[in-house]
Write a structure and sequence with these properties.
about 550 residues, alpha+beta, D-Maltodextrin-Binding Protein, domain 2, Dipeptide-binding Protein, domain 1, Dipeptide-binding Protein, domain 3, seven-stranded mixed β-sheet, six-stranded mixed β-sheet, 15 helices, 21 strands, globular, SBP_5, peptide transmembrane transporter activity, signal
Length: about 550
């Protein structure tokens, strides 16, 4: 069996892939101690961190939803076999302390941490790993809860479908002993190890699945540094320190409270008045002011997202590619960046961020050209315009700090084409649920990368496998599907890149979305916080964070 190191992922090179396996020294990584936390010194500062955000979690069953507000919380409760480095997608040990992969990339063996327990006191072991992965893969599994409306679209897109599907790559999961589990693939998967670090594929207590059944989404039980206490919908989620956490000296905090404050300015006021400790969705115009204010500090995430307008291409008139192209020509992205992002963004031409493997630099964004937009609408038979509902997010997101203002800019631009865009908004969880069901005409949303791999963007947002679920445009193109499927099962990074580049050319021509921006998300907090590192995925563990007295 071959053992080799997986290449490192830097923030600037998020997706350079080669076949290999990654192992970690138990005495040198933060997965097995406190060496990476301020020199390993224990702190008695404790306290509860109050993290304010724009919207509530959709569910605390991480694998069945795709929103960042859910994973931000579940990241504290649950853990994955592989973890990412604090500030990049470099692979590090998690619940697996080491792993091997064979030369063909078809057999992965994970060696698990010993002595780890779930929050309910039951042991973490290889059987728990097998139960969780089989739950997501098999719609008929007793813990899949499909009759209660659960679905695992991200599992399907990342692993080529579900049990029984031709493309499903996980052929077998074998428990070798309590702390050794083997995954056998039917064909290579270029992103397999990166997938194992995604927060969607963290491990739930099998005993909790049996106890709570379909109510597991409100009763999360993992191995993570914080334990679930309570959830008051649209208000707060309270977590407490896991006193039996398997990593010595962690977490530093006594607890974390995730508080919902929908309005950006209200969150900032709460921070300035000392009601909260940390907030996301900092308006770019406020960033400079915060930097000069005593007692406060700012944080920036590495850009790793796309904010976009999506068309429901199953509805008229957006089933006509000429209408979709016309609207692409009618949006002035630089105006949006200057007015809303304060320069903390760059125009997007593709769904994939620029530093990713396979980003097609030859794809040129649709030029802002109202004459061309009018010409295309005339050709499509909509020269006199039309009326539709523009679904607008009710909360700020890392890729869009002020959705309402952005919607108004878009509404004004389309009015020049005699197009009436009625701005519609809904409560966040309802918004996400209903766009997955296809109620929308056109909608505002975005996507943040969680594993450093281009397939997570293209496969999730623009493949048929993402319907229903993450592909809320309902875009289905056989040629694109074939290219993405081949790229998914290709190991050579150059071959993968070429396939993704070809797919982006077709997507650009078909225009199922208006890629607006790749944003630099900003956060703000009190300057007594230490150990907080914003992760590019937008969901970071808070186990190293502490608040000085």
């Amino acid at each position: 069996m071959k053992k080799a190191k997986m290449p490192l992922f830097s923030a600037a090179l998020l997706a350079v892939f080669v076949l290999g396996a990654c192992g970690g020294d138990e005495t040198s990584t933060d997965g097995n101690g406190e060496q990476n936390n301020n020199g390993g010194e224990e702190s008695s500062s404790g306290g509860t961190l109050i993290f304010a955000r724009g919207g509530d979690s959709q569910s605390l069953d991480y694998a069945s939803v795709t929103d960042g507000e859910s994973s931000r919380v579940t990241k504290q409760i649950y853990e994955t076999l592989i973890e990412f480095a604090d500030d990049s997608f470099e692979l590090e040990p998690g619940l697996a302390k080491d792993w091997d992969v064979d030369d063909e990339g078809l057999r992965y063996v994970f060696y698990l941490q010993e002595g780890v327990t779930f929050h309910d006191g039951t042991p973490f072991n290889a059987d728990a790993v097998k139960t969780n992965f089989e739950r997501w893969a098999d719609p008929d599994h007793e813990y899949a809860f499909t009759d209660e409306g659960y679905s695992y679209s991200v599992y399907g897109t990342q692993f080529g479908g579900f049990k029984g599907d031709d493309g499903h790559v996980i052929e077998e999961i074998n428990v070798i002993d309590d702390y050794e589990v083997e995954f056998v693939l039917s064909k290579p998967l270029g992103s397999f190890l990166q997938n194992m670090g995604m927060s969607y594929f963290a491990i739930t207590s099998p005993a909790a699945l049996e106890e709570y059944g379909a109510d597991i989404d409100e009763n999360p039980v993992g191995t993570g540094p914080f334990k679930f206490v309570s959830w008051t919908k649209d208000a707060s989620i309270v977590l407490e320190k896991n006193e039996d956490y398997w990593q010595e000296g962690l977490p530093k905090l006594d607890g974390v409270t995730f508080q919902v404050i929908p309005d950006n300015s209200a969150r900032l006021t709460a921070l300035q008045s000392g009601e909260i400790d940390l907030m996301d969705g900092l308006a770019p115009d406020d960033a400079a002011m915060i930097e000069g204010q005593a007692g406060l500090t700012t944080f920036e995430r590495t850009p790793n997202n796309v904010g976009y307008l999506g068309f429901n291409i199953e509805k008229e008139p957006f089933n006509d590619v000429r209408v979709r192209q016309a609207i692409n020509h009618a949006i002035d992205k630089n105006e949006i960046i200057n007015n809303i992002y304060g320069g903390l963004a760059e125009p997007a031409a593709n769904a994939v961020p620029k530093d990713y493997l396979g980003h097609n630099d030859d794809v040129v964004a649709y030029e802002y050209d109202m004459d061309k937009a009018k010409e295309l609408l005339e050709e499509a038979g909509y020269g006199d315009g039309f009326e539709f509902d523009l679904w607008t997010m009710p909360v700020s997101r890392p890729y869009m700090p002020d959705p309402e203002q952005a919607a108004v800019v878009i509404q004004d631009a389309l009015s020049e084409l005699n197009i009436t865009a009625n701005i519609v908004t809904k409560e966040w969880a309802t918004y996400l649920e209903e766009i997955e069901l296809g109620y929308q005409d056109m909608f505002m949303l975005g996507w943040s990368g969680v594993n450093g791999d281009p397939d997570y963007f293209l496969g999730s947002l623009l493949s048929t496998d993402g319907i229903p679920g993450s592909n809320q445009m309902f875009f289905s193109n056989e040629e694109v599907d074939a290219l993405l499927a081949e790229a998914k099962t290709t190991i050579d990074p150059d071959e993968r890149a070429a396939l993704y580049e070809e797919a982006q050319l077709i997507i650009h021509e078909e225009a199922p979305m208006v890629p607006l921006v790749h944003a630099i998300p900003a956060l703000a907090g009190v300057d007594t916080i230490s150990g907080y590192v914003p992760h590019p995925s937008t969901s970071e563990s808070l186990k190293h964070v502490e608040i000085s007295n």
